[in-house]
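Hey, quick one: can you model this chain's 3D structure?
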Amino acid sequence: TEKGGEVYDVVAVCTGNYNTPYIPQEYDTTPFTGTVLHSYYYDDPLDFEGQTVLVVGFASSALDIALDLRRHGAKTIVYKRNVNRTNTMPEDVVVVTDTSIKCFRKNSVVFESHNEYDIDSIIFCTGYKGDVSFLDEACRLTNFWPRNVIYPCYNLCLNAFYPTMALLTRAFTILPFLFSEYQAQYFTAVVSGKVKLPSLEERLDASCDYSDLSKVQPPCDTFSVMTAESQFEYFRHVLSSGDITLPSNLHQQYQLYANIGLLRKTNLENYRNLYDECVKSIL
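Sure thing. Here's the predicted structure for all 283 residues.
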């Protein structure tokens, strides 16, 4: 740098995805006079006791926060932005779907369906930006937003231009501890010389077309969608690419992930208490 600094042969970027809260610009909350926050800043459910809270989103954070609020004396209204999500909520939680938010008023939210709900607070569970703006342009990495794609990353973690730089655990909807462990093993194999990487041209060609995520299959450079099935296929790919012995219990890891995911959809309030039973069922 211009101010000096240290030179390293290997760089691992381990900042993850959850450092820059994202609220879509389409939601203009200016007229609303109540509390507005992102789930990143959610702390104490008792701050909302006795209130009616609109939770925007229907992924993990939204569901957990909605139930947490409910358990501590708040009435929750959940706006289900993604109609494909199928988790079952308790009957006393209002779930709004098949419509979109039209506007916010002083003390209410209005949907395109013309339904209006009085609310005291809004909690946006609308995800995060995978921010890498702290990296110098010389790294030649680009963040394609709102796709949340870092390009180009070979095998989902290596800077294709400079493969002694890795961006670890950047994917969403994953098992982060397994993901980081297996990527770290692969990256270690690369920088130790155990893995012979293809040419730059081949590494770039191996990057997926970030303009159409529906066509993406692992291994790829998209950090937006990683389902249960595809992330375990990725584990197998990246470990075998690094000539690393596959864990003998990898199938059991997948089965546990799948079973808990199914249980979460059908028993959202108590699935965590059934973890031990899930473990026993696959042993």
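One thing worth noting: Residues 209-213, 217-225 have pLDDT under 50 and may be disordered.
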